[in-house]
Design a protein that fits this description.
Layout (H helix, E strand, L loop, with lengths): L11 E6 L4 E7 L4 E5 L8 H5 L3 H4 L4 E5 L12 H6 L2 H15 L5 E6 L1 H12 L4 E7 L14 H9 L7 H11 L10 H7 L3 H16 L17 E6 L10 H7 L3 E6 L6 H4 L1 H12 L3
Parallel strand pairs: 3-4, 3-5, 5-6, 6-7, 7-8
Antiparallel strand pairs: 1-2, 2-4
Helix pairs in contact: 4-5, 6-7, 7-8
Length: 288
């Protein structure tokens, strides 16, 4: 599958009203729907997470990029919201309402890290709607053998504490997220600036507090054997956030599953191994 295109496609943006709040969605391309859920680091958003992959994916799919609650242009769950339900439960509710509003019934679903947890939970909550599932180092489904929180999780917790966001802290965060951080130096400033939104900072404090109260992500690993959709697991061997050892439970328990591991790759497979990521995803999803 060729990934030689260099121009990013023009995105159509929507603000979709749900009963929880307004969800920001960007989309481009035509064909079977591919919903892509971003990770949960400071300043994250759907377009920031996946913009470099759109030129390769949009010729084959209608790519739908929602900002998850708390991130990007979407509404911010309150402390009370996060006490009542986990961020994953909130995201699944908002996502399914958003897709209903867009007239999307069945879809392929891809999720990275925090978005991977939401993707697993969506596949469990609405199995009749998810055709195929791609998970990149997903939270919740992962059961690590080593200590937690991991190095990457600690970097996320530190970012907004103490003196608050700084360029140095963002550089340290990207250093932990990737296997070759010098390659991504040009992303530091943009990601730092995106992390400064006051409402996002307030959400992140509430999110971190809720994460601590709940002792981590929802234990989705207990139910991954119920996933019906054919599933592709993508993992960086050198991931220090959602570590590779935790993949073994999903590999054993998910009925129809395959795993591809990238050496010399950290937590951001879609960026660090861009061409291979795009080829594997398009092949797995059966691109036109």
């Amino acid at each position: 599958m060729s990934t030689a295109q260099t121009e990013e496609p023009k995105l159509v943006e929507h603000m979709v009203r749900t009963t929880l709040g307004t969800v920001a969605v960007s989309e481009a391309g035509e064909g079977p729907v591919l919903v892509m859920l971003h990770g949960g680091g400071p300043g994250a958003s759907a377009v920031a997470n996946y913009h470099q992959n759109l030129a390769a994916l949009t010729p084959h799919f209608r790519v739908v990029l929602p900002d998850q609650p708390g991130f990007g242009g979407s509404y911010r769950p309150t402390e009370a919201d996060l006490d009542a339900r986990s961020i994953t439960e909130i995201t699944v509710d908002a996502l399914l309402q958003t897709l209903d509003a867009l007239g999307i019934d069945r879809f392929h679903l891809l999720g990275n890290s925090l978005g991977g947890a939401a993707a697993i939970a969506t596949a469990l909550a609405a199995p009749e709607r998810v055709e195929k599932l791609v998970l990149m180092a997903p939270g919740g489904g992962w059961l690590p053998f080593g200590p937690t929180p991991t190095e990457g999780q600690k970097a996320m917790f530190r970012y907004y504490h103490g003196e608050g966001p700084t360029v140095r802290k963002m550089r340290d965060f990207i250093r932990v997220m990737t296997a070759e951080p010098k390659r991504w130096e040009d992303t530091v400033q943009a990601r730092y600036e995106a992390s400064l939104d006051e409402s996002h900072i307030a959400f992140y404090h509430a999110y971190n507090a809720a994460f601590a109260k709940r002792h981590g992500m929802d234990p989705l690993w207990q139910r991954v054997h119920r996933i019906k959709a054919p599933t592709l697991l993508l993992w960086g061997r050198d991931d220090r956030t959602i570590t590779l050892d935790g993949a073994q439970l999903m590999l054993k328990q998910i009925r129809n599953v395959q795993l591809h591991v990238f050496g010399g790759c950290g937590h951001w497979v879609q960026l660090e191994r861009q061409a291979e990521f795009e080829r594997l995803v398009t092949d797995f999803l059966g691109a036109r």
